[in-house]
Amino acid sequence: MKYFTLISFFFLSILLSFSQDFDTFFVDKTLRIDYSFAGDSKNQHVFLDQLSQLPLWAGRRHNLSEILREGNGQIKVTDVASNKCIYTDAFSTLFQEWITIPEANTAKRSFENTFLVPFPKNKILVEISLRDRKGTYVKFSEHEIDPNDILIKKKGLKDIPNYTAIHQGGAIDKAINVVILAEGYTSSEMDTFREHAKTTCDAIFEHDPFKTLKDKFNFYAVETISEDSGVSIPRKNIWKDTAFSSHFDTFYSDRYLTTSHVKDIHDAIAGIPYAHIIILANTDTYGGGGIFNSYTLTTTHHPDFKPVVVHEFGHSFAGLGDEYFYDSDVLDNTYDLETEPWEANITTLVNFSTKWKKMLKENTPIPTDPKLANKYDVGVYEGAGYSAKGIFRPATDCRMKTNTCKNFCPVCQRAIEELVKFYTEQKK
């Protein structure tokens, strides 16, 4: 009996230590850290810009010192007094995409990036590491933050835009909080925006595993008003005054719709509970973009609105890679074929055992001939990550490959489910 009591007390202590980790080191607010990422293809720099305090913390409260997806970069928060890692997260950035294109060989540019961490009770050390082409994470920035610093500006206490919950799966501190923002919608077009926000939410929940895990999510429609209707299309010399200054032709790719005004996005929603961001662009021009743990941006009046917004959310929320490819693409130099990508659904076979190898049927040929797709719903099919050769995907078709495919492939479904549970459940 004494032995049983000791064992029970031991496991209870472990559970309590997990649940108390957040309360031990953090208060229920957000520390927003803004950076400038700058440089070119050969040299990169990360500069601290400014610090802000937001009214509440709407991110994960479990597994705080771990990451499930590695991303193209990582932020690590260490408690100075104990030298303990108390929070870490992964991300990708537009800057890291830009340094892979030819322009970065002859020009230098800077990009805004914003990261959210729970607001610390005591001094912390913050590190920013970026992944190089060989898969090594290199530290680019390290600095201390004192939570009592008088220059930490309090935001989100006034001028909050109208927002409504379009899906409430649970309490803010127990669910994944997603905001849907309006881009290129004037004040008179907010009824249309709210319809599009509801369509977005419904489209995501049409897909497994989001459908079966919908009680893990909250979606909020935020009425961010633009002066002009529509968005900028530089190749047509169309420039609009919009809430987030988004535009097509990112990196001179017609369909790539992004914004580099990241601080404007976060300023607009500072008083709203959020951890993930979807931005809806009021245009019928085809395109979009999704950046892991940054934002999804997609258009609403194109016939492919629903499959595209789900695809881009696969990028920004789940860190899934593109499974499509072209013979030549502006981003076809994104991946080093001698390095295993961090994304769960693409592989160079350099370290395939860390991907979906265990999901293959016995004797599945590697690579897998697409003609055998009826026999192997999960295989190793060549062509992914914008490259026709050297990068492989799990299925012949998937929501991360085409707009016509109805579902995520089994590997993508597994990756999404793992991440949702990682955010909302304590690892055992």
User: Which regions have little confidence, pLDDT < 50, spanning 5+ residues?
Assistant: 1-20
Rg (CA only): 22 Å
What is the number of beta strands?
17
Tell me the overall shape: globular
Structure class: alpha/beta
Q: What share of residues are in beta strands?
A: 25-35%
Name the helicity range.
Answer: 10-25%
The overall average pLDDT, rounded, is 93
The string of secondary-structure elements, in order, is HEEEEHEEEEEEHEHEEEHEEEH
- Cα distance, first to last residue? 25 Å
- Major sheet attributes: 6 strands, mixed
- Strand order in the sheet with the most strands: 9-11-10-12-14-13
Q: Tally the helices: what do you get?
A: 6
Give an overview in words.
The chain has 428 residues and is α/β, with parallel strands linked by helices. The chain contains six helices and 17 strands. The strands form four sheets. Strands 9-11-10-12-14-13 form a six-stranded mixed β-sheet. A four-stranded mixed β-sheet has the order 5-1-2-8. A hairpin with a 5-residue loop joins strand 6 (124-131) and strand 7. Helix 3 (190-205) packs across helix 5 (305-316). It starts with a helix and ends with a helix. The model is unreliable at 1-20 (pLDDT under 50).
